[in-house]
Amino acid sequence: MSKVELFENERASGYDQFVEAWIPNYRYFLDFLPKLFWDSDPSEILVVGCGTGNEIQQLVAKEKKWNVTGIDPSPEMIQQARQKLEGYTNVRLIEALVSDLEVDRKYDAATLLLVLHFLEDNGSKLELLKQIGDRLISGALFVMLDITGDERMIRENLKILRLLLPDDITEEQIDHRLNRIQKELLHVPEDRLAALCVEAGFEAPVRFFQSAIYMGWMTRKK
């Protein structure tokens, strides 16, 4: 697999402020995330790349008493998640990779938010999706959020993203970040993401959310 992207030092400590500033409608996405699971009402949810625990916080704040396992390879991110989620007995946080999780423990839902664009499409994206699928029951709901699009779509949506950013971000910061998104991050077109999901044993995903370059997808384990 590709080198794992670890969030450390200021990347970890400033993560929450970063995503709030750079992902338009991020808070809106998190607010409605639990509603996506209400119909299936899963008992065990796996949150891959849980970071500081933002989506877990939303999932456990509702009346539903879902058991949530969050996994992330970054010790600093997991530490922040532990502080944020202290006192929740239905949350398990693990500093590890998905491949480290026991295969015989199955989950009936999973999320993968803002992770895939750090992995190369050289088998690494597919491997992660397969590893997640191997730990889900048949029919399990799987929700993804990622930077998605072909070269033209990314370029045009970055122009829109620039218009939506907070006023206190400097032009120098904006230019640096948008250049990194376009040239360094490993996003794929929509049809490629769908093909990877199907190859990994999921149904063809449905896009239900988009905010500039960020797209949300839903699918189920076959």
Can you describe this structure?
- This protein has 9 helices and 7 strands.
- The chain has a 7-stranded mixed beta sheet, with helices on one face.
- The model has no long low-confidence stretch (mean pLDDT 93).
- The chain is α/β, with parallel strands linked by helices and 222 residues long.
- The protein has a single domain, classed as Rossmann fold (3-Layer(aba) Sandwich).
- Helices cover 38% and strands 22% of the residues.
- The two termini are 24 Å apart.
- The protein has helices spanning 9-13, 15-22, 26-32, 54-60, 75-84, 124-133, 151-164, 171-183, 190-199; strands spanning 44-48, 67-72, 91-95, 107-113, 136-147, 206-211, 214-220.
- Pfam families: Methyltransf_25 (PF13649).
- This is Class I SAM-dependent methyltransferase.
List the helices and strands and how they pair.
Layout: H1 9-13, H2 15-22, H3 26-32, E1 44-48, H4 54-60, E2 67-72, H5 75-84, E3 91-95, E4 107-113, H6 124-133, E5 136-147, H7 151-164, H8 171-183, H9 190-199, E6 206-211, E7 214-220
Parallel strand pairs: 1-2, 1-4, 2-3, 4-5
Antiparallel strand pairs: 5-7, 6-7
Q: Could you name the key traits of this structure?
A:
Rossmann fold; transferase; alpha/beta; SAM-dependent_MTases_sf; seven-stranded mixed β-sheet; methyltransferase activity; globular; 9 helices; 222 residues; 38% helix
Structure in a nutshell:
This protein is of the alpha/beta class and 222 residues long.
- Give the strand content: 15-25%
Low-confidence stretches: none
Q: Could you describe the largest sheet, including whether it forms a barrel? A: 7 strands, mixed
Mean pLDDT: 93
Counted up, domains total: 1
Domain Methyltransferase: 45-122
Protein name: Class I SAM-dependent methyltransferase
GO molecular function, one term: methyltransferase activity
Organism: Sphingobacterium athyrii
